[in-house]
Task: structure prediction
Amino acid sequence: MTAVAAKDTRNEDKHRAILRAAEELFMQNGYATTSMDAIADHAGVSKQTIYAHFQNKENLFVGMMEGMCCRYGYPMECMLGEAQAGKSPADTLSALGMQKLRLIALPDAMGLFRLVISESTRNPELGRIFYEQGPKFTNKLLSDLLDAYVKAGTLKISNTSAAAETFYAMLCQPLHLKLMIGVDVDTSEKALKQHLDEVVTRFIKAYS
Amino acid sequence: MTAVAAKDTRNEDKHRAILRAAEELFMQNGYATTSMDAIADHAGVSKQTIYAHFQNKENLFVGMMEGMCCRYGYPMECMLGEAQAGKSPADTLSALGMQKLRLIALPDAMGLFRLVISESTRNPELGRIFYEQGPKFTNKLLSDLLDAYVKAGTLKISNTSAAAETFYAMLCQPLHLKLMIGVDVDTSEKALKQHLDEVVTRFIKAYS
DNA sequence: CTGCGTTTGGACTCACCAGTCCATATATGT
DNA sequence: ACATATATGGACTGGTGAGTCCAAACGCAG
Result:
């Protein structure tokens, strides 16, 4: 008798294909303008299969959004080890900062943000999930680091949580806004590095 | 013979009513989910009247968005005289900053932002118009002021344009994000003032 | 009062879409 | 091979919505 039985993965494969198709189409066209027929076509499944997996359109949307939000903070968390290795504040901020810049410029991240902004009024839970898995999480990572620097006497910050928010705001907001609304902005590695350096310099000056 | 003839204003009145109804409903429900029938009802006109004034739904939407964008920078421009009266950087930044905080928290401003974010991929002109009448304009106002302080030797800023962006990012982004996605945030006058003071302090320290 | 621009209510066409139903096919596990 | 879970293609229902058409009403200006 075999210890591990073979397993029918049709369910999972189809489920994944549906979610992936939903991601692409919802992000591309928005919630209201994306039809279940289109998602079915894109996923290579029948519409009835979607309804076998998800109760309705909204249920698919929320499931998809939760999945995407869960993936949001992951890359930043992976950076944490690297950033902790006894480095100076400037080095730490630079490493985390560059990672954050790259993250917000990802098409998926931008698509997710767009959906949250446009759909969170009619489904407020989306905003909460997005915030907790995303900004709140990444801010916490940074504020913990800042706490360590404060304890070591390197920086003077009374509210590291607000300071972390401030750092990411300085770093990301101008670029993010332009990307989101399609205004020309230089996203070359050189330009990003320059901006990052300037922000790190100013931030440290402001908090030391 | 009278110098000024009476004038039929039905056109203008209806036109305005249509635009106002469009604003409210598009902001409330998004573009795709708002029907022309609903706008007609809300404006108190017949649907055919809308089509007598606007070629189609998209045309109405763009006209409405342009009208709203034109109103975006106006309050900030009005602040300009006040802010210039030989004040210190801190006082100037505080005055402009508080005005900006109030502006971004206006339901109309938030609704406009939401529409720009969600609709600018399919109509890129919206992003451009919004950016130029809004952020770019208000940033220019501030960077001109910063230029004056730099010339007077009060602040040390090599790129006032970027610095203006940074100031507004520090000031507005954390609050704005939370407002936009419906996360709890303290918007009491006291909390705003406190945040503003902190940001002004840090900004000046970073650039002097 | 008359001419004409503006507006109206209602009906209409055509396309789209969420969700349902159905008979059948397919694939898996025993 | 058989039982059963999963998936399919296609048709369908009922509703919605952009835009059009039409005859008539309304309101303004001269």
Observations:
- Chain B has eleven helices and no strands.
- Residues 5-8, 10, 35-37, 47-48, 51, 56-57 of chain B lie near DNA strand D (CB under 10 Å from a C1').
- The mean pLDDT of chain B is 91.
